[in-house]
Amino acid sequence: MSNTAQINKQFAIQDQLSFHEHDSGLVIAEINNAFGQASICLQGAHLMSWQPKHESVPVVWLSKDAKVLAGKSIRGGAPICWPWFGAHSSDNTLPGHGHARTVPWHVVETGSEPCGATRITLRLSNNDAHQKFWANPAIAEITIVIGQALRMELSTENTGSTSFTLTEALHTYFEISDIAKVNVSGLDQCTYWDKVGGSELKQQVGDVTFDSETDRVYINTPAKCVIHDAGLGREIHIAKANSLSTIVWTPWTEKANKMGDLGQADGWRNMLCIESANALDNGFELAAGQKHTLIVEYSTQKI
Length: 303
Ligand code: BG6
Hints:
- The chain has 303 residues and is mainly beta.
- The chain has helices spanning 3-11, 252-259; strands at residues 17-21, 27-33, 36-41, 46-52, 80-81, 106-112, 118-124, 138-146, 150-158, 164-166, 168-170, 173-175, 183-185, 191-194, 200-203, 214-219, 225-229, 234-241, 245-250, 271-278, 284-286, 291-302.
- Strands 5, 11, 12, 14, 15, 16, 19 and 20 form an 8-stranded antiparallel beta sheet that branches. Strands 6-7-8-9-22-18-17-13 form an 8-stranded antiparallel beta sheet, with no helix packed on it.
- Strand 14 (191-194) and strand 15 form a beta hairpin.
- The radius of gyration is 18 Å and the shape is globular.
- 6-O-phosphono-beta-D-glucopyranose is lined by residues 73, 96-97, 171, 195, 215, 247, 249, 275.
């Protein structure tokens, strides 16, 4: 029996969840239920798409030029930055945003909630391609629930005998009508590290609006954010728990052109990253035997 057939046998849920093999050989979980559609690549436990039934365009953006390849991060969706966010603190040969998004995770559980929502849990442990990048014994798990809202719970368990420092992010790309016409509320008066043109500490005044490259790590904020998008007639609500940082990122033309995988014809204008994280000042020590879980919930509302 092929690997995919075996996974289907063990974890598929009739009329809700099945697994198929992409041309690259990577396995993708497809969820189609009463609430909507979502796909998750088992490499990186990477949510690639989410579109609720009541939305005419996806809520989670995937680049038209996204490459789904073994060992590479997929542009769009919700990459998991773990066990560090951004550059590694001391070794720049290690991958940016950690290794979790480019290595295989495995399915440990699937299920259907009483309301009809579909649940899948994936795990990355020391037995996976982990130790090559990070010596600390740990288990990362993500549970993704596709219901009226999209819920993701990223847990980290320290299975070793000494503490370690963790930084992390759910680096979600949201689909929007036009970057110049949306605004983000929820961060007024918050302090942020501005990563554009050197790292400087600044304070947000009012909503966040966009007219150039924006790369900000808001710190010490558990706040809910809302993307107001009159063009698509909707708000995207981003609620979170156990996350004290929020990253707001759009590359704008020059950086997008350099990156090269954000889609033809200014594809980047149709996406905005709002990342729920524990980054920079909000990195924390996880003691031996302790478990930490970062939770996000995304939902939409018509305006
Ligand atoms: C954001 C960072 O989280 O991710 C940006 O703040 C970075 O600086 C962006 O450019 C994309 O990162 P990557 O590694 O997926 O190209």
